[in-house]
Amino acid sequence: MESKAGSIIVLSGGTSSRFGADKSQAILGHQQLIHHILTGIPKEFEIIIVGADPLFTPASYRCVQERPVGGGPVAGIAAALELCESEIVGVLATDMPFAGAHMIHLLSAMTSHDDAIMFVDSKGFKQLLAALYRREALENALSKIGNPHGASMRTLISDLNIHEVQMSPEIEKAMIDVDTPDDLVVAMEYLAKL
To answer: Beta strand 27-28 with 31-32: parallel, antiparallel or unpaired?
Structure first.
């Protein structure tokens, strides 16, 4: 396999309970949310989707599923890491259609001392599911957790050396997290201005 700049784990297997349907299939513009994500990832990155195959032929990717299904993001990351071949791993939630490009740009600011690099918003909220991690750091953190099913992301990253990058107002707007139908309306308004 050719060397890749990094691996991107797209977490697509969530329950979408607040949205009321599978968020990855929600239509934004003329594309499903997950198609927006996949279109925004450069070809030099390996893509691993945790969840059902989105049947999106323009992108090259592999799919995996956590066992049992519904184990949450940490379980999804654990399943995907078994396929990862890169030192740097991006973790991206499928409900953040405009976050991928900004997350990938963090790569240039990552230092050899960083276990992870992620954006922090104006309220101090760390964007854990649009962040870059060192694969080895994630694997070590997972080994401390044991069973990843139901584990929280905050527990996973608790011992990591995290490089925090303050979001600009523009990036904060792009970090739309589509959790509800109202959020989808906000995302549509953002897309219309691009």
So the answer is: antiparallel
Residue 76, CB-side half-sphere exposure with 13 Å CA sphere: 26
Identify the residue whose tokens are 């962040």. Answer: 131
Which residues partner with 46 through β-bridges? Answer: 7
Strand partners, 32: 27
Select the more confidently predicted residue: 100 or 19: 100
* Domain layout of the chain by residue ranges: 6-193
Which among 59, 84, 80 is positioned nearest to 10, based on CA atoms? 80
Average confidence (pLDDT) over 158-182: 93
For residue 53, the model assigns a pLDDT of 92
- pTM equals 0.91
Q: Is 32 helix (H, G, I), strand (E, B) or coil?
A: strand
DSSP string, 58-126: TS--EEE--SSTT--HHHHHHHHHTT---SEEEEEETT-TTTHHHHHHGGGG--TT-SEEEEE-TT--B
Report the CATH superfamily, name and number, of domain 6-193: Spore Coat Polysaccharide Biosynthesis Protein SpsA; Chain A (3.90.550.10)
pLDDT tens string 32-80: 888 989 999 999 999 999 999 999 999 999 999 998 888 999 999 999 9
Whether 131 contacts 93, CB under 8 Å: no
